[in-house]
Amino acid sequence: MQKVALVTGGAAGIGHACCLRLAKAGNAIGVLDLDEQRCAGTVRAIEAAGGKALALGADISDRRQVQAALAKLRAVLGPVSIVVNNAGMAEFIPFEEITDERWDKMFAVNVRGTFIVTQEAIPDMKAAGWGRIVNISSSSAQTGTRVQVHYSASKGAIVSLTRSLADALGPYGITVNNIPPGSVMHTIMSEANRERFPIPIETMTANMPVRRLGEPEDIANACAWLCDEATGYVTGQTIGVNGGRVVS
C-alpha cells in the first residue's frame, strides 16, 4: 500500500529534493510550504515522473493552518505515514544584535513549527502502528556558530526533541531521527545568506574531508533511507550528512 509523506519546506532546496526522492521510493507526497503556489514546481516534477503529490500552504508555527493543511492532505491522499520536518529559517547576526522578536521568531518556526506538525501527524501513525519522522536540524547545532546563536540554539532543540520523541513514540512503531546538514548549497538559506557567511566557499571546500560542499540530494538520500520500511531499528539517531565537517 502506498504511504503518504508530508515534507515541510518542500518547495525548494532540501525539501524539494526530499519530496522527489521519497516519491521515487513509491510514496505519495504532501508538499507543504509557506506559500502553496511555490509548491507547484515540486508537484509537477513528481507527477511528471508518475508519482502523486499535493501542494499545501501553511505557516507551520500556526496550528490552525497546519491542521487545515493536514485535513486537505488526508482527504486527497490519505493518512500520514511519514513526516520530514524540513521547514525552517536562518539568520546571520552578531549575538548582541539579536532582539527578543528575532529570537522568538526563530524558535517559533524552527522549534514550535516542528512540534506542531509532528503532534498533528502522529495520530495517523499511531493508528497504523507504523511511522517515520525525520527532523532536519543543522551541523551548527553540533558546533555552534558565533553569528547564528539563536539559529544554532533552535536547531539544538531539534536534536533533543528527536531523542525524546524516539523514546516516546518507539512503542507505537514510529521511528524518529535527525539529519543535521552541513554546508549544503543551492538552498534558499544558503543563497539568501551567501554574502553574510563568514567563511569563503573556497576555504570551506578545501577544509572538507570530501573536498566538496553538499547538495540537497545528499540529504534527501539519507532521508529516504531513514524512511524506508527496512530501517525500523534505527531511531533516536543523529545521522550527520556533512562531508566530514562534524565527525563522531
Count of alpha and pi helical runs: 9
Shape: globular
Structural class assignment: alpha/beta
Give me the CATH superfamily: NAD(P)-binding Rossmann-like Domain
CATH architecture: 3-Layer(aba) Sandwich
Order of helices and strands: EHEHEHEHEHHEHHH
Rg, please? 17 Å
How many domain regions? 1
The first-to-last residue Cα distance is 37 Å
Major sheet: order of its strands?
3-2-1-4-5-6
Q: Would you tell me the overall average pLDDT?
A: 90
Low-confidence stretches: none
Reading off the top of the CATH hierarchy, the class is best stated as: Alpha Beta
Strand content: 5-15%
The helix content is 40-55%
How would you characterize the largest beta sheet?
Answer: 6 strands, parallel
Which oligomeric state applies?
single chain
The CATH topology annotation reads as Rossmann fold
| Topology, number of strands | 6
